Amino acid sequence: MTETGAGTAVRSVLKIEDLVAGYGGGDVLRGVSLDVTQGGITCVVGPNGAGKSTLMAAISGLLRPRLGSITLDGKNLVGLSPRQVLRLGVVQVPQNHSLFRDMTVRENIELGGYILSDRALTARRVAAVHDVFPEIAGWSGKKAGSLSGGQQRLVEFGRALMLEPRLLLLDEPSMGLAPKVLRTVFGAIRQMNAAGTTILLVEQNARAGLRLSSQGVVMESGRVRLSGSGREVLENPEIGALYLGGAVSAG
Amino acid sequence: MSALLRTEEVRKAYGGVHALDSCTVEIEEGSVAGLIGPNGSGKTTLFNVITGYAKADAGQVYLAGKKITNVTPDKVFALGIGRTFQLTRIFASLTVMENMLVASPNGRAAARRRAMEQLEFVGIAGHRAELAGTLSYGQRKLLELAYVLVADPAIILLDEPAGGVNLSLVNHIADRIRELNAAGKTFLIVEHNMEFVMGLCDQVTVLDSGAVVASGPPGIIRTDRRVLNAYLGEDLDPADAENPENPENPDPAEDA
After folding, report:
1. Does the structure show a pLDDT above 50 at B200?
2. Phi/psi of residue B158, nearest 5 degrees
């Protein structure tokens, strides 16, 4: 149990314990434990091959772990299908652009609520998405494929919000975007969090990701090697050794 | 100056993004050189420009002082630059030996003998009659290396030779590279496995956003702050530049 700046008790939404998972014969995750605190942004960073994407796949039900547990608000996720995990409120925005390019932005956003049976509820959720990202309302009639890379990311975020996720998984949202667009994307992540969404972020841009986040985790070779507040992790001199096998502080 | 391979101020853009931006890299003859950098820093693009798979927008590539900029891949190969790929390019439905002989379809005895020598050297001769598609990922990388070695190139470019390969094969691959280097072959290696790079290379060049940020022996590189900065990513200083795409952004300064 930790305390926020406001003094309220913080609880875990997602709890991962001693997770072992991999593909074929080998283990990629070799005993990973971490907590995602409610209302925060938890950022997982680490060099290539650390196991970050494998961790995401295990949480969202795409990869069944060999050992260990994953619980969402105390409910077991291991062994559930991706659809079941989604219904429990874990929504993932994949690394690669995933909008239907020939459909409008509005249609793409509505598709995020495809498991909602109620049209009125869908309409209310669209309005709520527009509250978080007003610019999306302005693009409603445009073909998704006509938007810039950064704008498409925003629509993907908006689509994910349609289910009012209990936990939002973002897999390297800055991947493939020009440096000047990064700020837009990181600003959007902050907006979603400010609107109350708990976020687990896997990010290649460790510095920007950790600065944004309440909690930081550095993975390396399938294990959690450092954890703490985003700033603590970034300022830990060991981060250099984990990335480069040397010793240099990120400062 | 005894640079065997040299790129000079190479530029390459894809749709407005500078994959390579004034990239100057020199590889000394007889060295095992490493090329590292975060995802998207331009490593594979540089390989593609050197080997003729991508056309440079500007700048030059020299092999032993001779300009080879934008020469076609087959000519680059004939000039003495061998190359393997990040995702191996083998013919899965041909046998290992057939893969070795695709460039000499008559399968003359001399060609078979050379192919066999290289398969023995990399350690997969026992699999020569098996379909290449049945090889493990690491063995496929060895097959590609064997194929490249048949042409006896002066310099060999390896794109992630240790990526996705189990540890014992990683060590085996490193040993083969050392042996070849001792026999005079020059290497340029892109690899994310830092232990592999730092343990094998005598010179490491670091790319970030398509430009060289540092170059030197591994002991210097692994403690260079600029290199770590490249890996940890850009600090998005919230103070500068408004955001034309997202005017609704709250002031990010509150976060820092």
Report:
1. yes
2. -110, 125
Q: Is B210 exposed, middle or buried (0-12, 13-18, 19+ CB in 10 A)?
A: buried
Residues in chain A with CB shorter than 8 Å from the CB of B196 are none
DSSP structure string for chain B: --EEEEEEEEEEEETTEEEEEEEEEEEETT-EEEEE-STTSSHHHHHHHHTTSS--SEEEEEETTEE-TT--HHHHHHHTEEE--SS----TTSBHHHHHTTTSTT--HHHHHHHHHHHHHHT-GGGTTSBGGGS-HHHHHHHHHHHHHHT--SEEEEESTTTT--HHHHHHHHHHHHHHHHTT-EEEEE-S-HHHHHHH-SEEEEEETTEEEEEE-HHHHTT-HHHHHHHH-----TTS---TT-TT---GGGT-
CATH class of segment(s) A11-95+165-241: alpha beta
CATH superfamily of B3-87+152-233: P-loop containing nucleotide triphosphate hydrolases (3.40.50.300)
Q: Tell me the domain boundaries of chain A.
A: 11-95+165-241
Cβ of B233 and A207 within 8 Å? yes
CB-CB under 8 Å, A247 with B236: no
Hey, is the C-beta of B234 within 8 angstroms of any chain A C-beta? Answer: yes
Higher pLDDT, B245 or B21: B21
Q: Tokens 């994953």 label which residue?
A: A70
The pLDDT value recorded for residue B107 is 64
**Boundaries of every domain in chain B:** 3-87+152-233
pLDDT above 90 as % of chain B = 70
Which residues on chain B are in Cβ contact (under 8 Å) with A151?
Answer: 245
CB B141 within 8 A of CB B166: no
CB B97 within 8 A of CB B112: yes
**Residue from the list A49, A191, A208 with its beta carbon closest to the beta carbon of B236:** A208
**ipTM strictly over 0.90?**
no
Which pLDDT band holds residue B105 (cuts at 50, 70, 90)? Answer: low
Q: Which residue of A has its CA nearest to B244?
A: A184
Q: What is the pLDDT of residues A134-168, one digit of tens each?
A: 999 999 999 999 999 899 999 999 999 999 999 99
Token couple for A118:
């109620």
